[in-house]
Amino acid sequence: MYVRKFFGTDGIRGKVGAGKMTPELALKLGWAAGRVLSRSGTKKVIIGKDTRISGYLFESAMEAGLSAAGLNVMLMGPMPTPAVAYLTRTFRAEAGVVISASHNPYYDNGIKFFSNDGSKLDDEVELEIERELDKPLICVESHLLGKVSRIDDAPGRYIEYCKGNFPAEHTLHGLKIVVDCAHGATYHIAPNVFRELGAEVIAIGDKPDGLNINHEVGATSMGKIRETVIGEKADLGIALDGDGDRIMMVNRHGKVIDGDEILYILACDAQSRGVLRGGVVGTLMSNLGLDLALQELGIPFDRSNVGDRYVMTMMKEKGWRIGGENSGHILNLDHGTTGDGIVAGILVLAAMRRRNATLEELTENIKMLPQVLVNVRFEGTHNPLESEQVLAAKSEVEALLGERGRVLLRKSGTEPLIRVMVEGDIEADVIKHANYIADAVRNLV
Description:
The protein is an alpha/beta fold and about 450 residues long. Helices cover about 35% and strands about 20% of the residues. The strands form 4 sheets. It has a 6-stranded mixed sheet with strand order 1-5-4-2-3-6, with helices on both faces. Helix 1 (about 25-35) crosses helix 4 (about 125-135), helix 5 (about 155-165) packs across helix 6 (about 190-195) and helix 8 packs across helix 11. The chain is globular, with a radius of gyration of 22 Å.
């Protein structure tokens, strides 16, 4: 069986200039992907990126590799990941390429692909690309080389697509919204979407300089948006991450509304309109409170492995339309083929308008259990998930929690981290238990 060397759970990602993320690999990857993806179809590939400074480097390298394989390249510049998925479909391209490390710091970057239908590549296709990487790069004849063009109206096309997900009979007039773009790919998109739908928008995290992406702003750092919502007396806040595929929200009191609560809002809204097909897919990290709240409504709930690709796989297997992660990846197959932070925000606002309710009112019937996630950086030779000491600590905590709590240990698919999650009724106990297990992991280093 072929063992993956490059692709992880969300494409290829790492520190710029080291390991996988080098210009040499990007060039070869563009060529290898071009070889696999050009065997039929339009021979067009779309490339989008976020705002980190290394995007220029990897964009040029990917462009050269794809051209060497005979594919034409259409450049979008800085655009959200879901915009690449959408425009890949509308331009009937062979594939879309996103150059982004999502929520990671600026010194990381990554490369991931979308197929011609706007979904992430199947594992089999990624493996085929990896096999091509083992072969010597052979350039096509000069008359077959790919050409490069730019999609100048990409932002406008995507803004109109996003707005089309909001019901025409409603408006956001009268709402004051803080929109945090994480100094990332949505900086020129998200504020305009919500303004054009009628809201008063206060934009933060909308001044990227290549180095400040995700730095103390965005969906992974909620302090700034909470402070701004309260200070500006806004109705709510919408925080996106660096590539725009995840969302977190803040109500007018500064309380964070995470992906689990957003899933609850969307499921309730779909059920009330009679358009909910099946149930909701969460992950092993989804809060037990979501499960219990959906049970009260008679809505089925199931958990996949962590990662939006696994959520998508389970949704397709079950024929369900709504799923996501508590980290803010929200999938609604009636409104797109991949996680889309802006569209998810629009759907929540649409639910607010249909029910004439505040964000607080939409979440009042879901009670989240205290959940603590401790990330332990681990680059040792031992696998902590198989360590007797760690497993013993995990078993000890599980016995103390009983049926009103959960423990989950897993390796991050994008960073050298062990994630320790503990959930239970009493927050102080949950924090203590999570740190107890995390210390067992640290002791192995």
